[in-house]
Amino acid sequence: MHGLTGILDNKGCPLEKQQFTWKEMASRPISKLDDDAFTRVRVILMNGVETDALRLKHFGARFNRELQLPLAQIRRVEQHQATAVNWLLSADHSPLETTVAYEQVAIEVTAAVAQNEPDPYQAQTYRFGLLEDFDHLYRYSAMLDRLEGKDANNILQGYTDIVPGRVTTDHHRAPEDDLRESYDKSQAELITKIHAALITGAEYQTHDYYMNIGPTFTDPVARQLYAEIASVEEQHVTQYGSLQDPDESFMEKWLVHEAMEVYAYSSCAEQEDNPRLKALWERFMEYELGHLNMACELFKKLERRDPAEVLSGELPKMIQFKSQREFVRKVLDEEVDLRTDGVDYVPKEKESKASQTYRKQLNSDGVPAEIASAGYQWAPGTELNDKRS
Amino acid sequence: MEKAAELGHNVTGAQMSPEDTKSLLQAVEKYPPDIKGDASRLALARTEMRKESGPVGSVPIPGSVKGVLKSGFDKMLGKQPELLVDKLGERLAYERTGVRLYEAALAKFEGTATDDKELIPTLRRIRDDEAAHMKIVKEAIETLGADPTAMTPCADVAGVMAQGIMQVLTDPRTNVSQALNALLTLELTDNAAWELLVDLTSKAGHPKIAASFEKALAEEERHVSTIKALLQQQLAAQA
After folding, report:
1. How confident is the model over A34-61, as pLDDT tens digits?
2. In chain A, which residue's Cα lies nearest the Cα of B157?
3. Measured between beta carbons, which residues in chain B are less than 8 angstroms from residue A32?
4. Which member of A21, A272, B22, B211 lies 3.0 to 4.6 Å from A278 by CB, making a disulfide possible if both were Cys?
5. What is the nearest CA distance from A387 to chain B, expressed in angstroms?
6. What residue of A is the nearest CA neighbor of B28?
7. How confident is the model at residue B67 (pLDDT cuts 50, 70, 90)?
8. Do A163 and B30 touch (CB under 8 A)?
9. Closest residue on chain A to B14 (Cα)
10. Using CB atoms, which residue from B24, B34, B167 is nearest to A158?
11. Taking all residues of chain B, what is their mean pLDDT, rounded to a whole number?
């Protein structure tokens, strides 16, 4: 396995040694101005991973009496890991700037995953969702410019294009058109399982963030825009969540999640430029190996099975944290007009009637994303600085 | 002395990534806006929502009978005591927050090496002035029979405005010049607000209150010039 050789042999850091202080959890943040955008991408992604780790384990505990204590023990550490990670975002990010950064995560990480994903249907799903988050970035960038007078590229640092994707107006689909075919747990490669867990967690976090900060805006259009895009993010959680095999047991999903966390921290550690954060990613990779080891032991004890049944298979290269501009443009050129009909991807004219009806009602009182972005064309230093105008 | 500005590896500007910027500008040309119109659509939506919107909240009815009578009396005279109570509530909230903001600034300055031995005592005096002004306003509100513990609409809005200043002053990363700039914003507004309040109380027929406010206004004028001078010194020392 590339980069994670012997994942099941490495015991990592034992849980009792995974300790924190408050000061260390809420430590010095990154610099919005001087740190590389991909450092922030990793911070946001890993907070999404950790909060999803908590979420999964809470649900698991509701269905498994004998797992309640070990899950509570691991969750406590993960709560503190999530804090240490999320508190790295400096408070000079306005909520809208953080939003732009969230969309950069969604675009660049989903694009990397789409190219690494061996299952063609799953890869298609990532490309489909990608074009919607790509469009969200454009609408939010217009909002940032027109609400705060700020250039989204100060956050994106040139890595990500700020242009329309599949128009947000068309993202609103009936629930039956957001469900996808899942992988088959007995056939799927490990990386396929990891990708589904990773992207579902990241989208879940984005949804929750928009739901929390949306109402803190006073501007009526910004409030509506967050309401609109939070709804799409709920669809994305539905979509990506359904990529996972529902026949997996809780413990199987738990093993996959822990392996995903190891893989994600390992990817971060491999590519991080900021030495302080590199050390943090390495430390947390060791913590996750400890969690994975505990999960494997419980799996053997309770399900009387070999964890290798769930976690076997080669892993391709680490998540590539770099600009995926060329890939995204290719997807934009070729797939912007794709829509869905149930689990199938279809041309625009064959989109499900249920989604069209659903959307017509929802959009009947105006579309916030359109109001915010009418005629918006990114220019260095905001549209007010545009030489063309 | 702490430097007001440092050269370094700021990566936010388009000039830091010329190739990416060129590529981004090509994309902007290739994929033009898909929705017709311009920023005026946002303005129009704001205007429309304004028509449907209610206020932030209301000024509370005075709790005491005396207050009710007094307010009723002023209302008959058409002097709108609720306006005065609202603005007094705003000043009270602002001064109270001001005390806390100076405390935050002091914590920052006490942790910073400086040659200016007068800096901290000066800021302490201003902090104490703000606390004294808070009491003056509280007494004025009580004289009118209103409740100084209520948050009036203007007090609430003043709190929203102060959020940015608070974020700057409590951020351990901001330097002395940046903090003084935040205090200058605070003081300039405070100064103009006291001027308005002296005028308002005077015209509403409360000469005693107006007189006590004039004293506060004189001190606030000194605060503005003091903070401005301190900021000038900080910048001049490094120019």
Report:
1. 999 999 999 999 999 999 999 999 999 9
2. A218
3. 12
4. A272
5. 12
6. A163
7. low
8. yes
9. A380
10. B24
11. 91
Categorize the per-residue pLDDT at A386 as very low, low, confident or very high, splitting at 50, 70 and 90.
confident
Is-contact A190 A253, C-beta < 8 A? no
Cβ atoms of A172 and A356 closer than 8 Å: no
CB pairs under 8 A between A and B: 110
In chain A, the residue whose alpha carbon lies closest to the alpha carbon of B171 is: A91
The rounded distance, in Å, linking the Cα atoms of A198 and B194 is 56
Smallest Cα–Cα separation from A132: which of A172, A179, A108, A168? A168
Interface test with A, best of B15, B30, B41 (most A CBs within 10 A): B41
Write the DSSP assignment of A221-251 as a string of letters: HHHHHHHHHHHHHHHHHHHHHTTS-TTS-HH
Q: How many angstroms separate the Cα of A276 from the Cα of each of A7, A30, A181, A265, A273?
A: 25, 10, 41, 14, 9
Say whether A376 and B41 touch across the interface (CB within 8 A): no
Cβ-Cβ contacts under 8 Å, A387 against chain B: none
Q: Which residue has the tokens 């053997």?
A: A300
Task: Collect all residues of chain B within an 8 Å Cβ-Cβ radius of residue A324.
Answer: none
Q: For residue B110, give both structure tokens.
A: 């006490």
Query: How far is the alpha carbon of A281 from chain B, nearest alpha carbon, in Å?
Result: 23
The runs of H, that is alpha helices, within B77-175 are 81-110, 119-143, 153-170
pLDDT in tens, A174-184: 999 999 999 99
- Give the per-residue pLDDT at B204: 87
pLDDT, mean of residues B47-73:
78
**Beta carbons of A382 and A151 less than 8 angstroms apart:** yes
- At CB < 8 Å, which residues of chain A contact B? 32-37, 90-92, 146, 153-155, 157-159, 161-164, 167, 219-221, 323, 325, 329, 332, 366, 370-381, 383
Task: Pick B33's closest partner by Cβ from A325, A375, A381.
Answer: A375
Do residues A45 and A266 make contact, with C-beta atoms less than 8 angstroms apart?
A: no
Which residue in chain B has the smallest CA separation from A366?
B45
pTM of the prediction?
0.95
Rg (CA), chain B: 24
The token duo for B124 is 């302490």
Residues B193/B95, Cβ–Cβ less than 8 Å:
no
H helix intervals, B171-206: 176-203
Cα–Cα dist A282/B26, whole Å: 39
CB-based contact, B111 to chain A, within 8 Å: no
Quick: pLDDT tens for A193-219.
999 999 999 999 999 999 999 999 999
What are the pLDDT digits (tens) for A13-29? 999 999 999 999 998 99
pLDDT number for residue A72: 98
The values of phi and psi at residue A341, to 5°, are -140, 100
pLDDT (average), residues B154-182:
97
Helices and strands per DSSP (H, E), number in chain B: 8, 0
